[in-house]
Design a protein that fits this description.
Oligomer: heterodimer
Number of helices of chain A: 4
Helix content of chain B: 10-25%
Number of strands of chain A: 6
Shape of chain A: globular
Largest interface: A-B, 33 and 37 residues
Radius of gyration of chain B: 18 Å
Radius of gyration of chain A: 16 Å
Distance between the termini of chain B: 32 Å
Number of helices of chain B: 6
Structural class of chain A: alpha+beta
């Protein structure tokens, strides 16, 4: 399933997430893959990560959460993410070095799909993005 | 080492006969030539694709064998026990308009757990769209091109009923072919399109997948400034074409999930673009050759 998660720094976040799989230090200069998810600009110019909820990656043994944490820190600072979120993510990465994880499962609830169990979630389905007029309706006339 | 060996032999086939590319006779005016399955021009000596293996993210260029076909042995050796995804499809035209998909989740898959992605009874390699979304693209390759004359021949596999060429070969952003609005400036493009090219719908719908044409096909598209022609399976339809905008960006998988331009299950084999009108006869000949190769 693909869903959309808002992030003003979506491109930087997608690149930071890819670092978990393939740190810059081990890449070849000719490598073309630089990010984990695609980024969409909505009609209102807001930026959204195109998140494949089933995508799994192997956490590189040398992976660092530092960049992801830096991008999430403002969310913790202003209370949108609960205290302890970054520590929890760090522990998760440490526990999974060298192993495959489904990235979406590690997302803080804030960035997951909004539903009855997660009413404050910011994630949206493609259909919801159209209903909210963030993306054009694909139905041909 | 294997790639180097392939390249050193690339001027000749394994029988010692000089290699002749299927597009050698149509090289004039080329704007981009992309194939994940074969070398299409004898003048091209580089790799066909760059791939990323899923196991550790390592990338490598994959070339062609002595017959000009994708070096499948090298690909499978590189991908090992896992899967491999296409990062870049190199432009064989010599213009350097390579198409790249930098986001891991949107890359086309070419090896699925040791098994090569193939299509047709000839078993040709292809790029499989796992998720749809934005696929390989090159931005602004045609920025300086304000021409509205264009020809394209493509081979692909459609996962569902959708219009054909615009889905597989959208040239955005201000392109007449980005009729749908799947790009980031969707509404603008769509409104713009509706004002200028509404008739394209009439011409595209007859080629929906629910016809007897089947999913795998080759098609050509020609835009000459006043008329568009779309030909699939030897059947043509034409439409008025009156845009003042040029083609300025190549997208081989289409931007945007849920868009008619890209869906999970699509397969890409070969796309060739000319910035000239190559004429219906040449277009038909190239389409037929592709169709036979990918049958």
């Amino acid at each position: 399933m693909k869903l959309f998660t808002p992030a003003a720094d979506a491109t930087a976040m997608s690149m930071a997430l890819y670092e978990l799989h393939r740190p810059a230090a081990v890449r070849d200069t000719r490598d073309g893959t630089t990010s984990l998810y695609g980024v969409r600009e909505a009609l209102d110019k807001s930026l959204w990560l195109e998140v494949d909820t089933e995508l799994s990656i192997r956490i590189h043994p040398q992976a660092s959460l530092a960049t992801v944490a830096a991008l999430l820190q403002p969310y913790v600072n202003d209370g949108r993410l609960p205290a302890g979120t970054l520590e929890g993510l760090s522990a998760y990465v440490e526990a999974n070095r060298g192993l495959r994880i489904v990235v979406y499962e590690a997302f803080p609830a804030l960035f997951k799909l909004a539903d009855t169990d997660n009413p404050t979630g910011l994630g949206r389905t493609f259909e919801q993005m159209i209903q909210e007029k963030r993306l054009p309706n694909p139905t041909l006339p | 080492m294997r790639l180097a060996l392939s390249t050193s032999l690339s001027s000749f086939t394994k029988y010692g006969v000089p290699f002749v590319g299927p597009l050698d006779a149509y090289a004039t005016g080329l704007g981009g030539a992309y194939s994940v399955a074969r070398r299409v021009l004898s003048s091209y000596m580089g790799a066909l694709i760059r791939v990323r293996r899923d196991s550790d993210g390592t990338e490598a260029d994959i070339g062609f064998d002595a017959d000009g076909l994708l070096d499948v042995n090298a690909l499978l050796t590189f991908s090992g026990l896992g899967s491999a995804y296409i990062v870049t499809i190199y432009d064989q035209s010599g213009l350097g308009r390579h198409v790249t998909c930098s986001s891991l989740s949107n890359q086309l898959r070419i090896v699925n757990s040791v098994v090569l992605e193939v299509v047709g009874s000839n078993g040709r390699p292809n790029g499989y769209a796992v998720n749809g979304g934005e696929g390989p693209y090159v931005s602004a390759a045609f920025t300086a091109n304000t021409s509205t004359t264009l020809s394209a021949v493509s081979s692909f596999f459609m996962s569902s009923a959708q219009v054909v060429i615009p889905r597989y070969l959208s040239l955005t952003k201000d392109s007449a072919l980005d009729y749908y609005g799947g790009d980031n400036i969707g509404v603008f493009v769509r409104q713009d399109f509706n004002a200028r090219l509404a008739t394209v719908y009439n011409f595209a719908y007859p080629f929906s997948i629910d016809t007897a044409l089947g999913n795998t096909r080759s098609a050509y598209f020609r835009a000459t400034g006043s008329q568009m022609e779309l030909n699939i399976g030897g059947t043509s339809a034409t439409s008025a074409f009156s845009t003042t905008l040029g083609f300025n960006r190549v997208v081989l998988s289409g931007p945007g999930s849920g868009s008619p331009q890209s869906e999970a299950g699509d397969r890409h084999m070969e796309h060739v673009i000319w910035q000239t009108d190559i004429g219906a006869t040449a277009a038909a000949a190239i389409r037929a050759e592709q169709e036979a190769f990918y049958a």
